[in-house]
Give the backbone structure.
Amino acid sequence: MIKPSVNWRMVLVLWGIIREMKIQVITLFPDMLTGVFGSSMLWKAQDKELAKLETVDLRQFGLGPRKTVDDTPYGGGDGMLLKPEPLFAAVAYCKQSAPNAKVLLMTPRGYDYSQKDAQRLASANNDLIIICGRYEGYDERITSIVDEQICIGHYVLTGGEIAAMAVVDSIVRLIPGVLGGEKSAEIESFSDGDNREFPQYTRPEEFRGMRVPEVLLSGHHAEIDKWRTEQANKQ
Ligand code: ADE
């Protein structure tokens, strides 16, 4: 008997129910991101064709034979700033394949990024272009082509790459279908801002004199839920 070959994914894509979110990260250090993008959940999301993650090497858009990407600041001061021309060219390149993409700049001067922002960006299902800031800063005119400036914490990283990895991870795991249905529903219930998780245990019941709390072994689900809520609020 001939089996009907229906590609359900294709059907859902055609109906506009699912689409692959393309995220392009503009960086001078693409190697920093390659391992993270090719592992674990980020790899799975790409394997399921729910996300497409790419790095774009800013150096390719550098000026002159030395592919210069930075220069000294007007008015004096230490360090070098990322020049506007290579970044404008890199964003234009990314927009060729993702014309409606939102442009995010990773910078300690951005707004404080939170789970709510991850959800907003995941559910908008817009393609994203992420610019990693570098060195002592960037020419301010870059911000004219940026939609959002994001800071992942009140500390200064050497560049935006680590911030970009954190932001990509936090968004991609929320794309429907990336995690198992059960887990994503659980995340939804934990997504009202500053919610913390409760402590968890696995086998063995006793390890180096430390026992798993009795309530977790009781099989009493109402009690377990109550304990977990108490613990989550305690931390
Ligand atoms: N680049 C350097 N530090 C950063 C931070 N805390 N958040 C985002 N981008 C950054």
About this structure: DSSP finds nine helices and nine strands in the chain.
